[in-house]
Each structure stands twice: as structure tokens, then as C-alpha cells.
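Issue 218. Parser rejects a valid record. Input:
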Amino acid sequence: ISLGLVGSEMCIRDRRCVLGSWKFIGLRRAGSAIDGGAARDVSSNQIFMCEIRIFPAESRDEASVHGLCRVWERSVRATHTFLSDAEIGMISRCVPEFICAVPHLIVATDAVGQAVAFMGISGRKIEMLFVDPALRGQGVGRRLVEYGIRMFSVGELCVNEQNPQAVGFYEHLGFRVCRRSERDEQGNPYPILWMERSGEPL
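Output the parser choked on:
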């Protein structure tokens, strides 16, 4: 099973944990609401986005990691229908360790300080990017990627081919597929796409 990252592997405490590629950035119009589809006007959406704060994680304590794991699980259950409950449960056991181990952890919080999305970066590679499904299409994922490009010159990632919305999202931001595998890193039948981006500004 590919673990929700973006298709890389990490050794954590001498245990190999394969962290796959679950992206679930939606592509709804900027005017769509987070409460089930009611229309927002542009000005209210801009106000909402101004309330989102993006910053390097200030803590990776148990409570903070637990909150990010909840974002991860909600996102996976909303978008990765090809995974069974048992698979999600198995994979979820590795997620806290990876969140603690990824070199750069970037968090997005709402106006009350609750985590709504997060991104992990290693070198120039986005290793994971998860957005709460309630905020899909609100621009949070784009802002995280823009932050990664600006601060870390990110230009690489992997993504599940079975997540076409994520593939389209990254293509919209200038990433292009450079390689494909029929199976994930553990040999399961979940095709993986490697994507790269040149250095052009967004």
C-alpha cells in the first residue's frame, strides 16, 4: 500500500515505511463554499483566504500530530475510494511517524488556529500534501505549493494516477509527468506518476 505522501520511501526508526501519493486537492471554482456548495461571492472568498495562515510547524507534539492525522484520514476517505477501510487503517499507523520525521513540515490553519492542511518537503520534493475535504477548491493547496516553490524551490513529487483531480491540479501549477509505474513501491496495483516542474514562476 502506498502511504499518503507523494510516492517516496523513508526509513523511520529502522522500519521501512512506504509513503505513497495521496493528493486530494479539489478543483472547484473559487466561489464555491466549504459548507456544501452554497455560492460565495469573490470578496467573501478573499476574506476567507486571508484568514488562512501558512507557516512551518512550530511543534510536532502529540496533540499537533494527532490533529494533522485527522486531516490526513478525512482527506483519504474522501478521495481515495480505491482503498479499503482495512488498508486505510493499516497505513494510518505509519502516518504519525512520518509527520514527525519529514524534514520540513508546513501547516495551514484557519482563523481559530485549527489545522486544515499540511505539506511535507524533503530537499526539492513535495513528500505529502493533504487538505481537509471541507476546504477543497478554496485555494489552500495552491498556497501551500506556492510556499514550497518560493521557500524550498520544490520541483518534484509523485501522485497516484487514480487521483485525476490531483494530477490536474499539479499540471495546472506547471508539473509534468516524467515517469509512470504500474504498481506502487510495495508492488500493489496502484499506478504512480512521477512529476517534475521547471523553475518558471507561477
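Fixed in the parser; the record now loads. Residues 1-44 have pLDDT under 50 and may be disordered.
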